[in-house]
Design brief:
Blueprint: H1 7-22, H2 31-44, E1 47-52, E2 56-63, E3 69-75, H3 102-119, E4 124-131, H4 139-145, H5 148-151, E5 156-163, E6 171-172, E7 176-179, E8 181-190, E9 194-195, H6 205-216, H7 218-222, E10 230-238, E11 245-246, E12 249-258, H8 261-281, E13 285-290, E14 297-299, H9 301-315, E15 320-321, H10 333-339, E16 342-348, H11 366-381
Parallel strand pairs: 3-4, 3-5, 5-16, 6-15
Antiparallel strand pairs: 1-2, 2-4, 6-16, 7-14, 8-12, 8-13, 9-11, 10-12
Length: 383
Amino acid sequence: MKSKISEAICRDMEQWFESFHQAPETAMQEYDTSRIIAERLRDFGYEVTEGIGKLGIVATMQRGEGTRSLGIRAEFDALAIQEENDLPYRSRIPGHAHLCGHDGHTTMLLGAAKQLVESGHFNGKLTLIFQPGEETMQGGAAMVADGLFERFPVDAVYAMHNLPSLPLGTLHFCSGEMMSAVDNWEIKLMGRGSHGSMPELSIDPVVAGASLVLALQSIVSRNVSPWHHSVVTIGAFLAGDTGNTIPDSATLRLSIRNMEPKTRVQVLERIRTITQHQAESYGCAYEITEGQPGAVLINSEEETRYAAEVARKTFGEKQVVYPSARYMSSEDFAFMLQKQRGCYLMIGNGETPMVHNPKFIFNKQLLPIGASYWVALAEDYLR
């Protein structure tokens, strides 16, 4: 495949990527990142609208008499995780890092945006969507609620994510349900603290929490059919600071994933019921804080088949997998696909640590590949 990205823009992309990586901002706090993206797009010549869903950006460009409109989306938030990579461009912000590759996704779309201005051939309207807050499932829903597609109508919308373990640079497409709905919940158990030597004077939320962790694991194994897909993960158990003190409270943080809407309702109701009875059996009070409701990511068949065909024409048959696997991970691009037809695809990051790992590294070799795909898609869709 001959790259559709000039050597000059490839050098620009490497610089942009390293700059984003060094200055990560977490979900819905990406003020500097959003400003930099908007300024860059204006410099390219796009009409830019900021502040959609708080920090979202839309850049548009009309060429010719064409009436078709293509939407392409990239996200730009980082994670609250300490990076453990020894890179010359490692994160400069303690406890924050781009360990999911959103800096790379944004860079690829910016590179494509610049290339399409300088030498792209399209007839119609190009709509580029840059989204905050993907990691907390807030940004996509916020942009949609702020009238994203009413204000900037598109005929189809596309997005891309890197995935370690997939061969480097391969493109993977899946029609229908591709990614699960995620619900991020917090359960707080309130008991009564005491000295560790006098447990009889306490209502121990640690013991109650430990029991609750085990009880919640029975949902997938005993309440959900093996034919359905569901995951209940307790990723954090927060309680106390010292070994000789029983704390007043304990907090569990959950990541709940389901591929079918009916199963999701069942699983969430079981979590509520089990939490209530477990807390009562140990004499604890409890509070459940439910985050942004999840959504299953569903790729429309026609748009997915078309996107895969563009990839084949651009990169060759061996670089394209269609149909590909489905994933129990989640993406708030699902909220955009609820409103508009389109496709979310994966690009292989090679044999690197998984996303959200402190040692994850976005492979910079993907920058011209991903940008070339976006250029090819725009030129083919807006012929």
